[in-house]
Amino acid sequence: MTSTTPPEIASKAESLIPQFKLTRLLNSDQAGRRISLLGTIDSKPALLIAERAAFSTSRATLSSFSTSLRNIKNLGANDIYAWFLANSDPNFSSEDGEQPPDFKLNLIYPCTQKHVNKYEAQGLRIVTETPAIYAKFVRPYMQRQREKGALNWVFNIIEGRTEQEDVMYREHGDEGFLLLPDLNWDRKTMGSLHLLGLVERRDIWSVRDLKKRNVEWLEHMRGKMIEATVKLYPHVERDQLKLYVHYQPTYYHFHIHIVHVSLEAGSTQATGKALGLENIISQLETMSDGDDAGMQDVSLTFHLGERSELWEKVFAPLKEAREINVDAF
User: Fold this and answer.
1) 255 is catalytic
2) Looking at 194, 246, 253, 255, which residue is catalytic?
3) Is residue 195 a contact partner of residue 222, using CB atoms and an 8 Å limit?
4) Is 48 exposed, middle or buried (0-12, 13-18, 19+ CB in 10 A)?
5) DSSP per residue over 40-98, as a string?
6) In this structure, how many other beta carbons lie within 10 angstroms of the beta carbon of residue 87?
């Protein structure tokens, strides 16, 4: 970025930064990507707000990105997924001689075209999925995705083959569940705390499978997840936690997200993606058609990427009055 400041003023301003003396941290937000510091310069109070600069997208920079990383530390690995902390500055170290990580990395290898479509920049569309559309098209799509083995990493955890050291709380049985850190959390920044609750039972693929008779179970899980979280992290209080589920979810095995309320609400927590667990419970409680009434009976509105299979194979054809080939799922 080219500065428009006159050189003599720019030079004077730049000389102030090394003179900053820290008094205390005021805030760490945007999931730890921005800090606000109180300090002094020449004994006068000063505020310094620092945030991660945008990544350079030049091909030369991106080509050398992976080889420029230092102190790569694996946090976990399961099936095709792995996640790491790493450092980008080999010349900086803290007082204890350690180099603090400034990157959180996720690796998917080998990845599929579905992964590529998910992470590629794309336009979004708002769609309304009626009970009829769900039953006729979306449910068969879910079935096909599960048959492709996309849930191996989930079953590895549930069956005790991987990530058992990360399981923070567990109840076994048909209505059992387990709690573990989400792979996108660095496991230390409380303001961006993000945990995942995986159910053991395999008959509930998404919020669509929840029925009125599941209310007691959902309330039990909610209470236990909150209780376990505040016990593990004493600085976090019950009313600082937010629980939600995604629709459409990334994978079709029912799971609940538990996050700190101050975690920046990006697209994954936005309307059109996240449904509050308490609101789901309340909606189920007020259904009047008996215990079999459920979320399969309501219309859900959410957003889809234009590169997603559901948009390309279901909702775009519906919009354009084209035939949908369920066998192509």
Assistant:
1) yes
2) 255
3) no
4) middle
5) EETTEEEEEEEEPPPPP--HHHHHTHHHH-EEEEEEEEETTEEEEEEES-TT---TTS-
6) 19
Whats the size of the chain, residue-wise? 329
Q: What angle do CA 228, 230, 235 make, to 5 degrees?
A: 155
Radius of gyration of the chain (CA): 23
Integer Cα distance of 297 and 64 in angstroms: 51
What number is the average pLDDT over the span 259-264? 87
- For domain 121-328, the CATH superfamily is HIT-like (3.30.428.10)
Token pair 């096909």 is at which residue?
A: 144
Q: Model's pTM, two decimal places?
A: 0.80
Range with the poorest average pLDDT among 68-77, 114-123, 173-182, 261-270: 261-270
Other Cβ atoms within 10 Å of 86 Cβ, number: 17
Q: Using 50, 70 and 90 to split pLDDT, how confident is the model at 265?
A: low
Q: How far is CA 263 from CA 30, 249, 253, 269, 302, in A?
A: 7, 19, 24, 9, 21
Q: Where in the chain is the domain with CATH 3.30.428.10?
A: 121-328
Q: Which of these, 216, 224, 261, 268, lies nearest to 246 by C-alpha position?
A: 268
